[in-house]
Structures are given as structure tokens and as C-alpha cells.
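User: two proteins, same treatment. go.

Assistant:
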Amino acid sequence: MRKKPNILLTGQLYDGFDEEYNCPILDEDKVVDELEDKMAEGGVIVDYHGCDLFPERWFHIVFVLRTDNTKLYTRLETRGYSGKKLQDNVQCEIFQTILEEALEAYQEEIVHQLPSNTPEDLEQNMEQIVQWTEQWIKDHN
């Protein structure tokens, strides 16, 4: 599978830099404008850490990856996260922030949780997503 370039960085879709979190600040309006035509064509997978900025009409299914807090802490620490960024990410997982956001933004029946703790989870998740995609294509063609 060919990976698409990160449109945030290639499309200049950011509005400054957050020193505290050590990351670009996303310009949500520019991102939605950039993706609008691509999403209308269909067949697009969006990988993002939130969902409240995306229109409900764009998605047929939403997968929320869930991770055990201790595994998440170690994973993010290995990536170089520290301080507030590390703490906030772990707290988001503890309080199910992304799951709650997805359930508020989209119809409950299209939101699915998937475990993301081990390499085996990754394989199983990929199989499940592929199966869902194949079934969706069958049902809509």
C-alpha cells in the first residue's frame, strides 16, 4: 500500500508552532478545505488523533484505537514525548477523550473501538479493517 504524504506539512496547513507540545498548530479550516474534494471521491482513509473537525458525511466507519495506559506511556516516552505532552496524551486515554469525541461527532453505530497494545493487535486490526472495507464495497457496488 502506498502511503500518501502528510498534507499538514506539504500543504502548509498549519498556523504556527506550539512550543509547549513541540508540534505544528493545525489550521482546521485549511485542512477541511484541502480534503473536501478528496473525500467526495471516496475510498479515503483518514488517520488523525481527533474527529470533531471533520464533517460527519465524510465517514462510513470510524475506528478508535485504544491502548493500555502503561503501554501508551512507554510508547510515547520512547518517541521522545515528555512533560505536558506525555501527560496529556495518557490522560486522554484514561478519560476516553477520543472515543467520547467520536461518539458525539458521529452516529454511534459507525464508531468502533480496536485494541492497540501489541503487534498482534495491529495485525488483527488491519485484517478487520480490510474485511470491513471489502464487505462495504460488495454492499455498495
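Protein 2:
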Amino acid sequence: MAHDQAATTGADRHAVFDRLEGHEQVVHCSDPASGLRAIIAVHSTALGPALGGTRFHAYPDEQAALEDVLALSRGMTYKNALAGLDHGGGKAVILGDPRTDKSEELLRAYGRFVQSLGGRYVTACDVGTFSEDMDLVARECDFATGRTVEHGGAGDSSVLTAYGVHQGMRAAAEAVWGEPTLAGRTVGVAGVGKVGRHLVRHLLEGGAQVVVTDVWRPSVEAITAAHPEVRVVPDTDALVGSALDVYAPCALGGAVDAQVADALSARVVCGAANNQLADPAAGARLRERGITYAPDYCVNSGGVIQVADELDGFSFERAQRRAAGIFATTREVLRVATADEVAPEVAADRVAEARIAGVSRLGAIRVRR
């Protein structure tokens, strides 16, 4: 019996490592006094310290939180590589409702856990966290970016995230309609919070017609107050079923499944959300229907470009120039997809993996001193 228990225990340990899906390190963080429950995932440091935001979200259970942080951190490895940054991929999630559970004590406790990793992971804002939160994290930690301008940071990274998504959308428009503009096109934006609201502004300034939806009513009210010309629909199903040229998922991941792909009239899917494709079948169905998908981690890298620039002494103009390069990167990804006859998400992976392999190889080159 003891032998069977030992064998089972060994198998369980092996299963735990299998679930890490190639990650270098996954840390569970608990501080009962503040109520902190968090998971930090470091996917890769091949290109440099792992960089990625902290998501504060009311997950249904711990397994959902783990699955999310593993997918998000892996995505950051590819995003940072494709953005040309000298950073690997990491991400953190804090379990709870940010509207009721967030506190100074909790954020500072979280900062101590980030500090304990010694710089292997550099954090920033994500869904449910803001620059002011990073100021609190930074009181316990040397590895927090996305801080407020008052504290020497870059401020809200959603500004350049939205800017980059717009650049990627312009490149997708060029691939589909021959011109890098959204003028006269109808764009449906699902989620008009931190990033979506800035994207709406870029689209309107570029001459697009915009339709929006959001589960958080105050976000919708803020958009319509700022931009009365925006049309509002009650939910995502109504938005997906609308006559659109572009569908822009800008909320949580998994927004595009095979059912959504079948329902879309849009010719382009390009938004700010991470991990937009619910599964490989969704991407395959988009391709079958002739819908161009601009890979999320390609187009939404403006925010990470902004916070990475903060590490060198922030210059908004420099970061924006770099984020403008998302247009050329998206164009290249779509070119490779066409040339190799593969889905855009496969092409994006290939371009990112080529840089990871090439740059990380430099670590094997030794110079005699």
C-alpha cells in the first residue's frame, strides 16, 4: 500500500509540472492578514526579465485563475518578443473583486512577493489595476512599472495600448481593403473601459462609425457623454450580430469562439483583449470564412512598450514612436500568413519564435576577457 501511495504521489508531482506548460516558475502567494491570494507566472526569461501586468479579477475558482495566468504569461513572452523588447513573459493575477477587496495592505503585501523574485518578474497594470495601485506596490518593490507620472512613472499604459491597436487595425484594413484607414468603416468595440474608450476616440478621429457595448454601465455612459455619435447595443451578442466591417474585442479573453466566428459579418477581427481566440477551432473558422484576424498579442503591445520604456526613464514620444511600429509588425505578420498559407496567429508565433531563438542564442556567445 505504501508503494502505491508513493507511486501516486510521484505521478501527481509529474502532473503538476505538466500543467505548467513550459513555464519556468509559478508562485502562489498568500497573505491572510490582508486577504491577498495571488499567482505569479514566469513563462520565459530567454530575452530578459519577465514583464507583464497584474490582473485583479473575481475568478470563479483557483483553477480558473491558474489557467488564466498561465495563458496570459505565455502570451506575454510572444508579445514582448514581437514588440522587439528585451523582456521575457510573465503575468500575475490577484483573486478577488477589485472594487471591494483591493486595499493598501493587500497591494503592499503583493509587492513584497514580487520583490522576493529578485527582478525575474517586472509587474505593471492590467485589468482591475491602475497606476495608483502600482505606486502602492512600488512602496515594497523595485520592480513595478506603469506608475503615476507624479511618482516618476509613465502613467496609464492603456493610452498606448489603444494607439497600437489602432495601428494594427489600420494594417489589417490595408490587407483587406487596400488602404490603411478605417474611414467610412463600421467598427464594433466590445468593452469600452481602460483601453476601449481610447480606441473609440482614435476610430472616430479617423472617420469610422463606432458601435459599442459593455457590461459595466458607467463605462457606456462615459463613452456616450464624450462621444454622442457612438451607437450602443445592449450586449455582445447584439454587437456580433450587427453589420460590422471590424469587430474589436476589448474586454476579457476567449471572446471569439466558433459560434461567434460564424455569426460575424465583419471582415476583420482586431481588438485589445488578450487571448481572444477561445480555441484553435475559432481561428480556423475565421480563416475558413475569409475573416482576417490581427493577432491580439501583436496589436495590443503598445502598453507593454510604454511600461518597458519607463525602465529607461520614460519618454512618451519615444514610446509612441516605437508603438507606431505595430503597424509594420502587423503588416509583416499578415504577409507571412499569406506567404506561408497559415493562419495569422500561427504566423505571429513564427515571427516571435524566430526572434526568441535568434536573440537568446546570443547568450551562448562568450567573449574572452
